Amino acid sequence: MKIVVQKYGGSSLATPERINSVATRIKRKVEKGYKAVVVASAMGKTTDELIDLARSVTEDPDPREMDMLLSTGEQISVALLAMALKDKGVKARSYNALQIEIKTTDHHTSARIVDINVDRIKRLLKENDVIVVTGFQGVNESGDLTTLGRGGSDTSAVALAVKLSCPCEIYSDVDGIYTCDPRLYPGAKKHKYITYDDVLELTSLGAKVLHSRAVELAKKYSVELYCASSFSEEEGTYVVGKLPEWLEEPVVTGTSLDKNQVKVTISNVPNDQRILSKIFEDVAKANINVDMISLVPVGNKAFLSFTIPEGFEKSLKDTVESTLEGLEDWNLEISKGFVKISVVGVGMRSSPGVAARFFKTLSKAGAHVELVTTSEIKISCLIPEEFGEKALRLVAEEFEL
Amino acid sequence: MKIVVQKYGGSSLATPERINSVATRIKRKVEKGYKAVVVASAMGKTTDELIDLARSVTEDPDPREMDMLLSTGEQISVALLAMALKDKGVKARSYNALQIEIKTTDHHTSARIVDINVDRIKRLLKENDVIVVTGFQGVNESGDLTTLGRGGSDTSAVALAVKLSCPCEIYSDVDGIYTCDPRLYPGAKKHKYITYDDVLELTSLGAKVLHSRAVELAKKYSVELYCASSFSEEEGTYVVGKLPEWLEEPVVTGTSLDKNQVKVTISNVPNDQRILSKIFEDVAKANINVDMISLVPVGNKAFLSFTIPEGFEKSLKDTVESTLEGLEDWNLEISKGFVKISVVGVGMRSSPGVAARFFKTLSKAGAHVELVTTSEIKISCLIPEEFGEKALRLVAEEFEL
């Protein structure tokens, strides 16, 4: 039995016409001899609409009931998609997470998949050509519905592919993974192959092609991922553990721009691990995401910089002031109007000089670098917003992206 | 443990405000010491919207997938209602038919309940004050979702009350059961008590207060039914097996008017059981509902009259012509513009003369009676439309309704 998992995102299923078009694609796959497990997201903006509905009933919706509510979105999609498939003569049936036993942890609104009743799916695939399964949701030990958090349908699809030992195709409104955002740099190229590691860095940098938990899972179990558009016939991108040998590994595989960054600098705090930890602890408690942390100790004092998203300035100021209450001489500076530009590439590991080329290009764009963070396969710099797009273009040219 | 089943219809849950108002009513019941099993219908017009959505995907939606789709409507309601209850400090949880194991037959879109896992509900009621359960839906032996057909939520509620041996309260936008439609006769009175049998006749006559399967079930297991409005505090109507002894049993408990009736007369057909059966068989196959059948045999010929709803005239003509093809001398007459006026009352059984008073009143209204059908507790007459409302008023006055 040749099995494939296909996942279709919300925009791919946004209208009755789109649902029929997706059904036709699935039918073609079946005609090629495949049995398909199709994972569907909620149609278009359904999830957002359900969240709004809950908020109009109560300001603080109970998470268990929120999951009960949100999981209807995917159930609507799978029922309609199975109808469309049957209408086209395909033997298809839809199932929700309770029926297919997608077992998760107990964390409502952000559960993790722990097991799937794969024997049931294999039995169902003997009687049917297509099993349409609700993405994004699962069931905990008490039999309550759970959801996996934003983008969780990707994870559902990869988890099914892991359990069925088969490849996984992710269809969305994006036709593959590019070297950088084509809207910002029209010369951007599409990767035919890219490694899990590169995608993970690109995803966390804001290139929202694939949900990062899904890529991690695919990497862990070496599931072959393919992402393409459900709106066109163009070839997409294969996400793999290692690039094919005939393909020369590029040093840098992508560059990205994250806007609306706020730089925070706290100077002259005591260089005391307990105080520094306390700052980050309190900031996390205030639900503020911290990025690009940089710490410079000078004698018994320390200079601490990091970035936060726009909109949290007031809350950060209150938090830091309360954390450092009673201490003297420290100073807090918060400045808006920055972007984070990054280059990513597994090839960087074995290729020195990328940082130098990157900095030189940024300086050519006229951009002063305010903060730098690096990982083994990524370098990110914080620069003033006005230089962002020019810098991205020059970086894309420099690294032939 | 004092348990009550409450059912709230679609219009009672149509908006976030209505949901919060219903939650407040449920909370008051809990404060009186009750554990409540609340059955919820889909919000407002949700079911119709889902049917339209399915029809825009395919003209002929698969019934299994239709049930998978429609059952999301009630799941949205129960999640929102449980949220509203928790928000008001009530220990509540929502469950769908898969979770609560409402087992049904296999007939998609018109399944019948065969069992409910009542031990599970009792366990859940120990930990919670309110269990909110999806009405209208169940699960068949294969674990597929089924639905019970229009108005099925009433049946869900009564079935739960049967299994829990407790009373059942049905809330809707109607504040009880009246002697006749108050929109047609402002003097209509609300019953405080009425028998199952009278309600069954009234329901099938078009007074859509309660779903008839629900009333049959309540009658079979002597479940005390109470119907009232969720929009007001007015006392509703108790539906019982026998009226309280102190209450003098009225002879006639209600009168109703069914509009848009078409009279069909087939004269001079052979008085042959096979031919007559064939007519009704073929008409049923053409999906035409036949009512008020009257047959007069004259020698070896028969005169057959019955009524059908408006809109089926052409289809009926084609059917009868094809059934009687080859036979001679028969004649088909189809005439529109009639209404069916009925009086109902368990008391009729022991009280002669109701028919005479009814006919006399109709004649006082100037209405010629075209067809008559009677049951033990009901008399219906077909009269021309123009006399309908006047006749209803005079009948209501005659029988003090």
Please tell me about this protein's structure:
The structure is a homodimer of 401-residue chains. Chain A has 401 residues and is of the alpha/beta class. Chain A is 36% helix and 28% strand. In chain A, helix 1 (16-31) links the parallel strand 1 and strand 2 (35-40). In chain A, helix 9 (273-285) packs antiparallel against helix 10 and helix 11 (354-364) packs across helix 12.
Per the CATH scheme, the topology name of the largest domain in chain A is: Carbamate kinase
Helix/strand-derived category of chain A reads alpha/beta
Please give the alpha-carbon distance between the first and last residues of chain A: 40 Å
> Mind telling me the CATH class of the largest domain in chain A?
Alpha Beta
**How many individual β-strands of chain A?**
18
- Principal-axis shape of chain A equals globular
Average pLDDT rating of chain A? 90
Quick rundown:
With 401 residues, chain A is of the alpha/beta class. Helix content of chain A is 36%, strand content 28%.
